[in-house]
Amino acid sequence: MLYPLQPQKQNDHRTREQVELVQQYIEKWSRSHGNKYPDPAQVDTKGSVGQQDGIFFWPHNPWTHHPIANLPTWGSFTYKVNSDHTGYTINAHFSRKGAFKLSGGTLAKH
């Protein structure tokens, strides 16, 4: 038996997993680009992050079942890179309010 919040919890958990996979793709892209991070437009299934060698699957939004995107909506993420492209933040947006924040590069060391 599912309780009303159960599907939300499950999809929020899936969102976190999907965004962690996007983070792995961003880090992979960075290693092959002089340890610089991509512009937000490139963090997409059709962008250079999603099209790099070895990427055969782009994560999906558990609510819409479309490729996960850089949007401020449930099951999506918001990616921001700092001005010198040496660090970034990425927030996974949950249905039950709030977000899960990840970061990388020199930004993560502060």
What descriptors fit this protein?
alpha+beta; three-stranded antiparallel beta sheet; 24% helix
Q: Give the oligomeric state of the chains in this entry, treating copies of one chain as homo and distinct chains as hetero.
A: single chain
Strand content: 15-25%
What class do helices, strands and sheet pairing give? Answer: alpha+beta
Detail the poorly predicted runs. none
* Total number of strands: 3
The overall average pLDDT, rounded, is 88
Distance linking N and C termini:
45 Å
The profile of the biggest β sheet is: 3 strands, antiparallel
Going across the major beta sheet, what is the strand order?
Answer: 1-2-3
Question: Total helix count?
Answer: 1
Could you spell the SSE succession in H and E letters? HEEE
The helicity comes to: 10-25%
- Overall body shape: globular
Count of structural domains:
1
Radius of gyration: 14 Å
Structural overview:
The protein has about 110 residues and is an alpha+beta fold. Helices cover about 25% and strands about 15% of the residues. The chain has one domain. A 3-stranded antiparallel sheet has the order 1-2-3, with helices on one face. Strand 2 and strand 3 form a beta hairpin. It is globular and about 45 Å long.
Mind sketching the topology for me?
Elements: H1 6-31, E1 77-81, E2 87-93, E3 99-105
Summarize the structure.
The protein is of the alpha+beta class and 110 residues long. It has one domain (6-109).
